[in-house]
UniProtKB/TrEMBL annotation:
Residues 301-432 form the CdaR GGDEF-like domain. This is PucR-like helix-turn-helix protein. Belongs to the CdaR family. Transmembrane segments: none annotated. Residues 486-543 form the PucR C-terminal helix-turn-helix domain. Coiled coil: none annotated. It comes from the Bacteria. Residues 11-123 form the Purine catabolism PurC-like domain.
Length: 553
C-alpha cells in the first residue's frame, strides 16, 4: 500500500494532501499515533504518523525538527488534525514537504483516530498476510532440498487455489497437483503422458514458441467451450526452452501479482531439470561403478566395507537387488524417437517413490533394464518386510506411470559379500514372475516355489534338450501355420489346470476351436493331454524354458 491508496481508505478519504503531493507513491508499511515529544527514536522507513502535535503545539521548532527526522528516516508521511490544538503549521514544514516529496496531510477535526487507524491496520494486515504466504510458499520451494516436482506443484496449488502442472517441451507430464481438470487440452494425468493434440499444436505454433522462448510475460489462453482458461509460464535456461508451468484458472483468475512468484519458481525448476540431467552424474557414476564391481566380484578383500561406507551403505545391514522391466516400457513407447531422453526423469521419479520405503537406494540402467540396489537395517522377518514394501512400490510406480511394470525382488542377504547373488535372482524372478503371475506384479524370490529347484537345471544341456525336443514340433508347426497358436494354447490350457472353458475365454476363441487345437497337439506330439503325467512333462518343459534367456517359449 502507498500513500495514494491510503488516502482512499477510512478516515483519510476526508483528508487532503496540502504539501509534498509528489510523494504519493511512498510505501506505507506501518501507521502510528504520535502525541508525546520523545518519539523520534522509533521513526522508521515507511511509517505514516498521525498526530495533533499536542505535546509540541506551542513549539514550532520542535514540530519542524520532528518533520525533518521523519524525512531523514524515509517515513511515509505526516497526518495532522489542525484546529483544536494547532491552528497553523510552520511555513518551513510546507517547504520541506515539497522539497523532499514528503506528503503532509490534514484531516478534519471531527475525524477520530479510530476512523483512520482501524481500516489502515486491516489493510496492512491483509498485505502482510499475503506477503507472508508468498514468501512462505517461495521459501518452501526454493529453500528445500526436496527435488520432488509434485511437492512443488502441490505447494503452488495450495497458494494459488488452482490446479497446476509441469510439462516438458514435448508436452509430456512431469508433475500434477492434487486437483486436476480434464479438458480438450489435457485428458490424462499419468506421468509422461502427452497433452492433447490441440495443446501440442498451440505450443508448437511459431508465435507461441517465440513468446515462450523470449517473452517477458507468461502466455495467457482464454476460456472456450471445451477448454478452461490457463496461464503458461516458460521454464527456460537462457533461451533454451525446457518445459512449462501451467496454471488452470478453474476456481479463480490468476492474479498478475503472482507472476513474479511463478517466474521465480520457473527459474528454480530450470536448475532442477538441468541438475537432474547433469549435476548428479558424478554421484550416479560412483554408485554404478560400485554396484558393477559388486556384481562382477571386482572389489578386493578389505575394500568392500570402505567403499560401501563412502556411499552411505552399512555393511551390517541387509541388502538386495530389485529389477523393473524397463525394456518393456521402452518397447511400448518405441514410436517416440526421444523416449530415452526421459531416462533421468524416470530415474528421479522412481527414486522418489522408493526412497521412503528403503533406507538406502541406488538406481541404475544395465542392458536396457532398470535395477535398484537397496539396503535396510537387519531385523527379524526382513524378507517379509521387503516383500510387502515391494508390493507398495510397484503399486505406486504403476499408478504414476500408467504402465504395468513388473518387479523382481532378489533374495535378501545380510553379508555384502553375498549380495551379488541377489542381482542374478532378481533378473530370474522378473522373467519367471511375468510369465507365471502376469503383468503389473511384484514377485519375491521366495515365492518361486518349485521354480527354485528347476533353477539348478535351467542350464543343464541334456535337460534343456529334452524340453526343446518336447515342444519343438509345436513351435515348428506354428511357424508354418501362423494362425495355429498351438504353443500358446497349450500353455494357457495347462495354466488353467485343463479347464477348456476357462482357457478358451483367456485365448478369446470358441471352445470348439481350442478342442481342435488340443487334438492337433496330441497328434503332433503323440502325448495324451488327459494323462496327468504327460501334462506334467509339458508343464516342466515350459517352466524350464521360461527361465532360459535364449528360449522362444
Amino acid at each position: 500500500m502507498d500513500v495514494k491508496e491510503a488516502m482512499s481508505i477510512g478516515g483519510l478519504e476526508k483528508g487532503e494532501i496540502v504539501a509534498g503531493n509528489k510523494g504519493v507513491n511512498r510505501p506505507v508499511r506501518a501507521v502510528e499515533v504520535m502525541e508525546v515529544p520523545d518519539t523520534t527514536s522509533w521513526l522508521t522507513e515507511g511509517l505514516l504518523i498521525v498526530t495533533t502535535f499536542y505535546a509540541i503545539k506551542d513549539n514550532p521548532e520542535a514540530q519542524i525538527n520532528f518533520f525533518q527526522t521523519l524525512i531523514k528516516e524515509k517515513g511515509a508521511g505526516l497526518v495532522i488534525k489542525p484546529g483544536r490544538f494547532i491552528k497553523n503549521l510552520p511555513e518551513e514544514m510546507y517547504r520541506l514537504a515539497n522539497q523532499n516529496n514528503m506528503p503532509l496531510i490534514t484531516v478534519p477535526n471531527d475525524v477520530v483516530y479510530g476512523d483512520i487507524l482501524t481500516p489502515l491496520y486491516e489493510e496492512l494486515y491483509k498485505e502482510r498476510s499475503a506477503d507472508l504466504g508468498y514468501y512462505q510458499v517461495l521459501a518452501s520451494i526454493l529453500d528445500t532440498t526436496d527435488q520432488d516436482l509434485n511437492h512443488i506443484v502441490n505447494r503452488l496449488e495450495d497458494y494459488l487455489g488452482n490446479p497446476v502442472y509441469i510439462e516438458d517441451t514435448k508436452t509430456r507430464l512431469l508433475a500434477a497437483s492434487q486437483e486436476k481438470l480434464n479438458d480438450d487440452w489435457r485428458r490424462s494425468y499419468f506421468l509422461l503422458t502427452k497433452a492433447s493434440s490441440g495443446f501440442q499444436r498451440f505450443i508448437n505454433n511459431p508465435e507461441t514458441l517465440e513468446k515462450l522462448k523470449h517473452g517477458k510475460c507468461p502466455v495467457k489462453v482464454g476460456r472456450e467451450e471445451q477448454r478452461e482458461s490457463r496461464v503458461i509460464f516458460p521454464i527456460r535456461d537462457n533461451n533454451q526452452l525446457l518445459g512449462f508451468i501451467t496454471v488452470i484458472e478453474k476456481n479463480q483468475p490468476l492474479e498478475e501479482e503472482n507472476d513474479a512468484l511463478l517466474q521465480q519458481v520457473a527459474s528454480h525448476l530450470s536448475l532442477l531439470l538441468i541438475k537432474d540431467r547433469f549435476s548428479s552424474q558424478a554421484q550416479q557414476s560412483l554408485e554404478r561403478e560400485f554396484v558393477n564391481d559388486l556384481i562382477e566380484g571386482n572389489i578386493l578383500p578389505g575394500e568392500l566395507e570402505h567403499r560401501a561406507a563412502g556411499l552411505g551403505i552399512h555393511s551390517h545391514h541387509a541388502s538386495f537387488f530389485l529389477t523393473l522391466n524397463y525394456q518393456s516400457y521402452l518397447q511400448e513407447h518405441a514410436e517416440e524417437q526421444d523416449v530415452r531422453s526421459q531416462d533421468p526423469f524416470v530415474l528421479q521419479q522412481i527414486k522418489t517413490i522408493v526412497q521412503p520405503l528403503f533406507e538406502k537406494t541406488m538406481i541404475f540402467f544395465k542392458r536396457n533394464q532398470l535395477y535398484l540396489f537397496c539396503s535396510v537395517p537387519s531385523e527379524k522377518d526382513v524378507s517379509q518386510a521387503v516383500k510387502e514394501k515391494g508390493h507398495q512400490m510397484i503399486e505406486r510406480i504403476n499408478q504414476a506411470f500408467h504402465f504395468p511394470f513388473n518387479l523382481g525382488i532378489g533374495r535378501v542377504y545380510c553379508d555384502l559379500n553375498d549380495v551379488y547373488r541377489s542381482y542374478e535372482k532378481a533378473q530370474l524372478v522378473l522373467k519367471i514372475g511375468r510369465d507365471v503371475w502376469g503383468t503389473g506384479q511384484a514377485v519375491h524370490f521366495d515365492q518361486l516355489g518349485v521354480y527354485r529347484f528347476l533353477m539348478k537345471l535351467r542350464n543343464d544341456s541334456e535337460t534343456l534338450q529334452y524340453a526343446h525336443d518336447l515342444l519343438r514340433p509345436l513351435l515348428d508347426y506354428d511357424r508354418k501355420n501362423l494362425q495355429s497358436q498351438l504353443v500358446k494354447s497349450l500353455k494357457v490350457y495347462l495354466q488353467t489346470n485343463g479347464n477348456v472353458t476357462k482357457a478358451s475365454e483367456l485365448l478369446f476363441v470358441h471352445r470348439s476351436t481350442l478342442k481342435y487345437r488340443l487334438k492337433k497337439i496330441q497328434d503332433i506330439t503323440h502325448m495324451d493331454l488327459d494323462d496327468s503325467e504327460m501334462r506334467l512333462q509339458f508343464q516342466v518343459a515350459f517352466k524350464l524354458l521360461s527361465m532360459h534367456s535364449d528360449s522362444s517359449f
